[in-house]
Design brief:
There is one protein chain. This protein has about 190 residues and is α+β, with helices and mostly antiparallel strands. The chain has helices at about 10-95, 95-110, 135-145, 180-190, and strands spanning about 115-120, 125-130, 150-160, 170-175. The chain folds into two domains: about 10-110; about 110-190, RNA polymerase, RBP11-like subunit (Gyrase A, domain 2), CATH 3.30.1360.10. The protein is about 65% helix and about 20% strand. Strands 1-2-4-3 form a four-stranded antiparallel sheet, with helices on one face. A hairpin with a 2-residue loop joins strand 1 (about 115-120) and strand 2 (about 125-130). The chain starts with 8 loop residues before the first helix and ends with a helix.
């Protein structure tokens, strides 16, 4: 008789293939979870490494900020010291200024001009005097303009002499003392 297989072999073959399918799905899910775990741990290690780098950079930035503050404080102190040094130099340069002004005024006053009053108010010097002629006053103006110490001369007024001293005219003149910076610049040019 022909061989008839009454065993449920198709059912067994279907269960076997279904079992293989479930094992395959399970292994794929397992491998996928393992790969995802590896990727997650890789990115976690990258994040941890970056956090370590960030914390190191933050600590270095704090150190540099303190150094910058120290440098700014030192620059402020340097600026204060430089201002003090300039003030001391200016005071040192102006120490003999009164004597220099008198010497320069004596040098710029030509013969025939007589000073009766000399007043200093800050950098302005007011001179009151008498002159034999207006030419002598203009000569005095030119000498003040060419002076190393004096500048900007102006004559306020010339009054003709009275009956007794008809030869002499009264005058009032203002001129200014050059600033310390201008004097220093002139010295550097020489």
């Amino acid at each position: 008789m022909p061989h008839i297989n009454l065993l449920p072999w198709r059912e067994q073959q279907r269960q076997a293939s279904q079992q293989k399918f479930l094992i395959l799905i399970g292994s794929i899910v397992g491998i996928s979870l393992f790969v995802m775990y590896l990727i997650g741990s890789f990115y976690d290690s990258l994040r941890t490494g970056q956090e370590i780098k960030n914390s190191y950079l933050q600590s270095e930035i704090r150190k540099l900020d303190t150094r910058i503050r120290e440098i700014n404080d030192l620059n402020a102190q340097k600026g204060n010291l430089q201002r003090r040094i300039r003030l001391i130099e200016e005071l040192q340069g102006n120490r003999n200024l009164g004597t220099q002004i008198i010497d320069e005024v004596a040098r710029v006053v030509p013969s025939g001009v007589y000073l009766t009053s000399l007043e200093r108010d800050g950098n302005m010097i007011k001179v009151i005097g008498r002159s034999e002629s207006n030419n002598r006053l203009s000569q005095m103006l030119r000498q003040v303009e060419s002076s190393y110490l004096l500048e900007r001369p102006t004559i306020q007024g010339i009054i003709a002499g009275e009956q007794t001293n008809r030869l002499l005219s009264d005058f009032t003149m203002h001129f200014y003392v050059k600033s310390y910076q201008d004097l220093e610049a002139a010295k550097e040019k020489e």
